[in-house]
Amino acid sequence: MDLFSMGRFLSIVKKEIIQFKRDKPSLAIALAMPIMMLMLFGYAISTDVENIKTTVWDQSRSADSRDVIASLEHTQLFEVVSYSLSEQEVEDQIDQGKADVALIIPPDFAHKRDNDEPVALQMLINGSDPNIARTATANAQLIIQHKALAVQEKILASKGMGELEQPMSLETRVLFNPDMDSNVFNIPGLIGLIMQNVTMILTAFSLVREKEKGTMEQLNVTPIKPVELFLGKITPYFFIGMFSFLVVLILGIYWFHVPVKGSMSLLVTLSGMFLITTLALGMFVSIISKTQLQAMQLAFAFILPSVLLSGFLFPRDTMPMVIQWIGAIVPLTYYLEILRGIFLKGVGVEALWQDIINLMIFFVLLLSIAVLRFRKKVE
After folding, report:
1. Coil, strand or helix: which one is 332?
2. Cβ-count burial of 5 within 10 angstroms (0-12 exposed, 13-18 middle, 19+ buried)?
């Protein structure tokens, strides 16, 4: 008796395609959700801080104070949304969320500037969002230091002295993402996250649907072998997943202007490997679930930790070691490194071989577990 029949395999593939076409919600998830998620999260997720809402209490009302305010606004990091007239009004603006930052300029600011006396400005910063607070603090200090240096140079020039020379300077060069655009970092990660979520959700319902409809028992009495049934079920989802991957890849390149600096063929090959890994994981969830609700709960129980622990949102190096170990058992962790390495750095196998090996281990391990568990269930 033959170990594998191409005819039986293709019959299962045909059955899955027909069933999938009739299942309109699953068809919408497969085709529309990747595009919708990329467009939504591509614009929503950004680590760039701009237009920090700022209120100003200018007690000096002088040309010097207006010059400082203009310097803040010119950076496009601070947006002056209001001018307060008292300390209470400043506090109200921050308490009510109308401003995240308050700049307080003392009444003797211009006088002390004219007489070359030390003068202190005050900035109140809403620390509820640490990212905004850190950005506002660092940039405000740089702006004020720059203005102080300009004042010193002006004073020296008025006394007939030369320009103030800096004893030390720093020249920086940003590699891979010189504009420091967060989309260049986020979009490749989003592509990996979308591929994982969509393929897992689709395949997680695959066998459970058969169980609930009672068609699994009918398949069991046919001469179809477990491996033919397993491969026949995941094959249509693989091609659907690759189609969705290519769609979001094209959107990422041409809509969000994130170029692929590395090998496109390597990217597609490793993405195919990752897709089969997530399909096997979704099939495993489907095998151990008894209902579609249970499959959905198990799938989301895996998806949420993978978002937080894979390095998609937060750098893994800053996490406690135990959390890093947990994140190391998530295939998305290594796929994100591969995506960002090929997208941003343009590196090849020589730089990504550790991530590729780890992804291959998950690829073989999850596929083997899913096939073995599937065979036990079917037989």
Report:
1. helix
2. middle
Q: CA-to-CA distance for 57 and 106, rounded, in angstroms?
A: 9
- Identify each DSSP E strand in 192-329 by its residue range: none
Side-chain-side CA neighbours of 331 within 13 Å: the count stands at 29
| CA–CA dist 40, 42 (Å, integer) | 6
Strand-strand pairing, 78-83 and 52-58: parallel
DSSP 11-30: HHHHHHHHHHHH-HHHHHHH
- Residue 139: burial class (beta carbons within 10 Å; 0-12, 13-18, 19+): middle
Query: Looking at this protein, which amino acid is placed at residue 121?
Result: L
Picking from 225, 222, 231, 219, the residue whose alpha carbon sits closest to that of residue 4 is: 225
C-alpha closest to that of 206 among 26, 28, 14: 26
- The pTM assigned to this predicted structure is 0.79
The CA–CA distances, whole Å, from 360 to 223, 244, 276, 307, 319 equal 32, 22, 11, 20, 25
Give residue for tokens 């109140």. Answer: 124
Instruction: Quote the CA–CA distance of 251 and 150 in Å, as a whole number.
Output: 46
Instruction: Give residue-wise pLDDT tens across range 240-287.
Output: 889 999 999 999 999 999 989 999 999 999 999 999 999 888 888 888
Residues sharing a CB contact under 8 Å with residue 126, sequence separation 6 or more, in sequence order: 94, 99, 100, 101, 132, 133
Q: What is the largest CA-CA distance in the chain?
A: 102
Q: Is 189 exposed, middle or buried (0-12, 13-18, 19+ CB in 10 A)?
A: buried
CA distances in angstroms from 286 to 217, 280, 332, 362, 363, listed in the order given: 16, 10, 19, 18, 18
Residue with the bigger pLDDT between 119 and 239: it is 239
- 144: burial class by Cβ within 10 Å (0-12, 13-18, 19+)? middle
What is the number of other CB atoms lying within 10 angstroms of the CB of residue 88?
9
For residue 62, count CB atoms less than 10 angstroms from its CB and return exposed for 0-12, middle for 13-18, buried for 19 or more: middle
Distance CA 99, CA 108 (A): 25
